[in-house]
Amino acid sequence: MFAIKRELKLNNKETSLMRGIAGFKRFVYNYGLNLITATWSCEDIQVGDSKRLDAIKKVFTQVTMKKPEYAWMRKYPSTVYQSAFIDLKKAFNQWRQGIASFPKNKSKKKGDSFTVYKTSGVYPEIGQPALAFTNRVVIDAGKIIKLPGLKTFRLKEKIDFICSSQTFTVSRTDDRWFVSFAIDAGKIPPIYHPIEKVGVDLGIKCLATVSDGTCYTMPNCTKRAKTKLSKLQWHNRHKVLGNKKLGIMASKNARKYYIELARNSARISNIRRDTIQKMTTDLSRRVYCIRIEDLNVSGMIANHKLASAVSDNCFYEVRRQLIWVRLF
Questions:
Q1: Where are the domains of the chain?
Q2: Chain centroid offset of residue 136 CA
Q3: Bridge partners for 178 per DSSP
Q4: Minimal CA–CA distance to 208: which of 199, 195, 221, 197?
Q5: How far apart are CA 85 and CA 104, in angstroms?
Q6: How many CB atoms lie within 10 A of CB 144?
Q7: Residue 292 pairs with which residues in a beta bridge?
Q8: What are phi and psi of 42, to 5 degrees?
Q9: How many CA atoms lie within 13 A of 105 on its CB side?
Q10: Using CA atoms, how far apart are residues 318 and 310, in angstroms rounded to an integer?
């Protein structure tokens, strides 16, 4: 199983729809989080988080959504708020297990996202394939995709083959919207590796140095992009960016600055991700056994002289991808 991610080609009306759905999901998530923390003060209720959230979900569907001031919720798919409660359950489970920190309220500033899925299907007729009638959405090859509960949207990059999926996640990065979904297929790993084993040394000046003499470096365009980002922030240091608590609205130029700032930050992140993906892919295809040093990344970031360089080279992400590639 692997995932496919494509950028959506939206007009202004479709963008407003996506922002509305993302706001609906964010409202439901924060609603459930605030209500479950409020129930902890009641000592008479002796149930777990999962049963508490199930009760909160019933209150939300049977009481809150029927109020006149929340009539706007009915125009969005029901799978949006259902997926919000599912995400909240996962967040509390990870917190209880010590994997993640306590769940926090979602904010617009950290990006928008929501999940929709197909809930039921239709029984096939005689002579028709059964795949199209299960609880999965069939995606044709091309630049068109149909999201369950929503309409058909255009893609900027085509899908090369016919596939099917049940769950679709729509997310926003700066002012660009993406859809991602998983398909039941697997990539066949290479059977033959020309190199038996190597050691990988992560560094600051050089991203990674391999024991066979290969050296991987972070491209210079990362430094240029960071310089451009710092200049943009410096030139707009006196701009009125708005304050919701004081009732100060952000100006139009401030909104343009937010979009440009997000685009520059996303470009830096994309350069790093692309470099690391290419490096780990090349190593996994050439080498059978990869040994990597165990670094104290959090301790290195605590040193202000090394923090920027360590963050740029993404030591933890390199290690995570190498372990994931070798497992699958």
A1: 1-187, 195-327
A2: 22
A3: 7, 171
A4: 199
A5: 14
A6: 13
A7: 200
A8: -85, 110
A9: 10
A10: 12
SS3 state of residue 172: strand
Place of tokens 């600055």: 257
Kindly tell me the burial class for residue 213, based on how many C-beta atoms sit within 10 Å of its own C-beta (0-12, 13-18, 19 or more). exposed
The tokens describing 19, both together, are 């922002």
**Tens-binned pLDDT, residue by residue, of the chain (328 aa):** 778 899 999 999 999 999 999 999 999 999 999 998 888 876 666 778 888 888 999 999 999 999 999 999 989 999 999 999 999 999 999 999 988 889 999 888 777 899 998 886 543 443 444 444 467 888 888 899 999 888 899 999 988 888 888 899 999 988 889 999 988 876 666 677 788 888 888 888 888 888 888 888 888 888 888 889 999 889 888 877 777 778 888 788 888 888 888 889 889 989 988 988 898 888 888 888 888 887 777 788 888 887 888 888 888 888 888 887 655 5
Residue 107 in tokens: 């904010």
Question: How many CB atoms within 10 Å of residue 62?
Answer: 9
Q: What single string gives the DSSP state of each residue in 57-95?
A: HHHIIIIITTSGGGGGGGGS-HHHHHHHHHHHHHHHHHH
| Measured distance CA(252)–CA(242) in Å, rounded | 11
Enter the DSSP assignment of 234: H
- Tokens representing 166 are 């049940």
Q: Which residues contact 174 (CB under 8 A, 6 or more apart)?
A: 259, 262, 263, 265, 266
Q: Using CA atoms, how far apart are residues 122 and 227, in angstroms rounded to an integer?
A: 56
CA separation for the pair 228, 261 (Å, rounded): 10
